[in-house]
């Protein structure tokens, strides 16, 4: 029997309540079995970078398993930075195999929303800013996942591009922008990848939740694209029963109610069918899709793939993917040679600094967290690489500004896994009427609106690392009070006549500096509570015994004495995280100041950034070596050391633009980032397209990435000078490694429509190919273009349109390094 026959046979045996029971969850991550007709329980799992640890059936608490570790893979931004379909396939193969080993039926990934806004909290989960790059990488990943008898779940459909009011913000792009920019990766997932799961997004689309949008779901996803899989919700989305039911939502996974039967697609759905308001055929279709996927992934097959987990091969894959995604941004000559790679024979004294030197990232970020079997930090990777032959000195540098209490001491956690303080906003100083509750990464607060007084309370659990006197330090503009274990230890009220504390004039306001010494015991937990009334900001920091941080004099002296300095900076999941966007594009905790001073102290300073979103780099021109490493998974430290020493030649390319300033980006420049609605005012000019249109020079362009060798691109050739109707054209170019070490280069093909009836980007990425070459070796690389590649979405005909005329092919190794050009002509019909 075929899958469809099996599905229809099962469906014919089911009662209406049984059909409805397949349209909603019966646990946090599962859908109930129907034993009467032989339908098994179906299990889903986060996430895109490794199978999430097991949680309890009906709560978000850990199930307490001791054998639910998984391979922590590099994040999808790293896959995107590899520009390599083989890495995408390898990532999917590991993810699918491990999901099956954990007896999961759906894995909730990969993610393909685009990095429209550098502040977006979930950029690290996705594949960059370009729709074609994401589309071409998601397909092999889906196929690899599903080859393991697991349904891949592409997310979040569609327009999930900010966390600011992610449930309520109303996305209102024009149709051309929707089709050309924000849907191609999803379309490829369906048409080319055959994806079985699609997760709807949180946001609204023209006034209704995306999960129940007739246009997004019925017209496009299930209509035009012919999607046969399951559309399921994320957790706690804003839907209603009727619209969700009739407009194509198949599975409701997480609604914030006490009983699963109160889900919108549970009892209310059944009641509407029984009342004749919704046809029973709607329930049939939802059940049919669930059953179709179950049969396709082998849930009724005794020979279903068993999967595998935490194997040596998977760990090797994690390392391989991480190395392929590392981007060498800058590498200048100092003395007689470039700063990188490090010479393992000559380097004897390395100074390592920075917040990411020994930081692990697997358990943060939100639904992408992974309970990794282990995680090699950058520092551990360096030590393993150099062994006892090199002296590696490690320091934590403190800036001249007062720093918040370091996360090392913060025991309290946000649900995303990040060390955090709870924060509550009140209407008045008495703190009776609560406005809202949220969380904040550290004890550094800036008011949302300087025109109005904020009444906030912040709480956290703090655990000292050493016993002894801790000097608490406060800088505040406004009333401030600190309690420790309910005892007031610092209090200050604004009073111009107050002379008990030192003050300094800053922007015509008085910054009050306070300090207090207190004895605390290592390993004990202390309840910290801050009350602040003011319209500006405050910082609570401390000097603790066994100080983690070195003074400026100490770390500068060490930098001058070192053969090389490596600063592992960037972001963490206190910055890149689900549920909250970043407030700016700056490196946190005054990293820019420290980096600038290190660069001045030692020309052989390597700035190695770990981050999933763009950051400003005011020191970029002064730096001689800059590397971007992303969140590299469990083998990150080994992978980074491989790159730094040249054991692996870097070949990653930026999948995002790195702007010089936040205000250079389209959403900020056009004032189109807020909590209410996003108009996508830049249209199709996302990312690099905007920067080229506006002639804004970023710090580093899209597609940029250097190597330890050199390549040439020559002898470009087109398979035809003119193509007609639905014909395709093949572009070939010869790539040669002209250097002395083996390496890989990414040939990037951009297309320029020389004369169009609509405004089109100066360059549009249409294809790419990664080629590995030994020194002196050359190969011909071919990239094909079809009619769709030439087309834009015509709002008049509601279809793709390739206009007649000349198109220019631009081949290069980055957006701003075009090496070869060629021109061809398109005709829409054959000449008679």
Automatic annotation (TrEMBL):
The keyword Endoplasmic reticulum does not apply. Keywords: Hydrolase. InterPro entries: Cellulose_deg_GH3, Fn3-like, GH, Glyco_hydro_3_C, Glyco_hydro_3_C_sf, Glyco_hydro_3_N, Glyco_hydro_3_N_sf, Ig-like_fold. GO terms for biological process: carbohydrate metabolic process. SUPFAM superfamilies: (Trans)glycosidases, Beta-D-glucan exohydrolase, C-terminal domain. Residues 416-560 form the PA14 domain. The keyword Repeat does not apply. GO terms for molecular function: beta-glucosidase activity. It comes from the Bacteria. Transmembrane segments: none annotated. Belongs to the glycosyl hydrolase 3 family. This is Beta-D-glucoside glucohydrolase.
